[in-house]
Specification:
Helix content: 25-40%
Order of helices and strands: EHEEHEHEHEEEEHHH
Structural class: alpha/beta
Shape: globular
Number of helices: 7
Strand content: 25-35%
Number of strands: 9
Length: 243
Amino acid sequence: MRIHFVVHESFEAPGAFETWGRRLSYTMTYSRVYEGDSLPANLSGIDVLIVMGGPQSASTPRSECPHFDAAGEKLLIAQAIAANRVVIGVCLGAQLMGEALGAACTRSPEKEIGKFPITLTDEGAGHAMLGHFGQTIDVGHWHSDMPGLTAHCKVLAHSQGCPRQIIEYGPLAFGLQCHMEFTPEVIELLIAASEQELTGLSQHRFVQQPEVLRRNDYRSMNEMLYVFLDKLVATYRGYRLFT
């Protein structure tokens, strides 16, 4: 299995996604765009495309952030979905996925930073990919925006602060507004990049401060993520056998 990551900033690292890939000896390649890496020219050699988060918005122009090519990423995501690859968008990646399919990103009702529960919708609770989650699960968050909704997508989970936490855009395409990939190492990177901002957000009800962020245990949600990914890959392999 060949996984390709689009990584926007060093502090928005793949975290538990990489742990999963290493456990299974999958091939992992990267477009670290903050280092000047190019996006893949085509989908050859890619089974799973994972587009990570970032401080940019889905509409941030090149003039504002020269290393971020929103239009190019949206095109890559749309091509990968059309080619029946597994596509996972995380936070900014989820917002880009919605826009790639014609659904504009919008502001979330609340800013969320930390570890808070999400609740599965009826469709989510009955969904084969999420059945192991239970009705609620505590997951990571670090966002102000949320993905747009297409005519045929399904909202599978929501939180008190955001109504769009997990969205199914297609059988192999999922947008995760939440961050199930957080690890203590990733949290330290995010704190270092955002400590001043966090201090200014101390009055927000869904924003945790560094001491709380460091105390959170992220292992359970990581394990839930691994099962979700295993199910997605099994579905992808089954699909490839019959197409």
